[in-house]
Specification:
Layout (H helix, E strand, L loop, with lengths): L2 H8 L2 E5 L5 H13 L3 E3 L12 E7 L7 H8 L7 E8 L6 H10 L7 E6 L13 H21 L1
Parallel strand pairs: 1-2, 1-3, 3-4, 4-5
Helix pairs in contact: 2-5
Length: 154
């Protein structure tokens, strides 16, 4: 094992997510698996996070912004700064999720080192039709490629 690999093995990594439809959970689990960690849901978390060298947040986009539960979670964070990244999953557009996350996290002493977004099937069914399995499969295939690119950039 080389020096770089030893250093990587010592890094503490934590990936937090919120997911109502499993899209963001899937992305968080893929990233966490690639980094050698497990993804943790923010639901039930009081905001006191374990010290980590790498902290990631994965959340869906709701109405072009952050879900309320994520806003509350970010506003209550108590954590030491580390390399911090944010991933927004979205169906149509990631909107202002990244900027909202940046502002809320800055109030808690965290600066975002990287912002990413991954397009997933839009599952707001009053407007979007998910009945074409080929279309959904193609969107999921492209999303997997995007997640792999995000992992490489992290």
């Amino acid at each position: 094992m080389g020096a770089h690999e030893v250093k990587e093995a010592r890094l503490r990594k934590t990936i937090y997510y919120f997911s109502a439809t499993e899209n963001s959970k899937y992305v968080a689990e893929r990233i966490a698996g690639a980094l050698g960690d497990e993804a943790r849901s923010i639901q039930g978390c009081d905001g006191h996070l374990s010290p980590s060298d790498v902290i990631g947040f994965v959340t869906p986009t709701y109405a072009w912004g952050l879900p309320e539960i994520v806003k509350r979670f970010f506003s209550a964070l108590v954590v030491e700064p580390g390399y911090t990244f944010f991933v927004a999953t979205y169906g149509t557009t990631p909107g202002f999720t990244g900027e909202q996350a940046r502002k809320l996290l800055a109030k808690r002493g965290l600066s975002l080192d990287a912002l990413f977004s991954v397009r997933m099937p839009d599952n707001w069914t009053p407007t979007f039709d998910l009945s074409d399995p080929d279309k959904v499969a193609e969107t999921n295939r492209k999303a997997d490629e995007e997640v792999s690119e995000v992992i490489g950039r992290i």
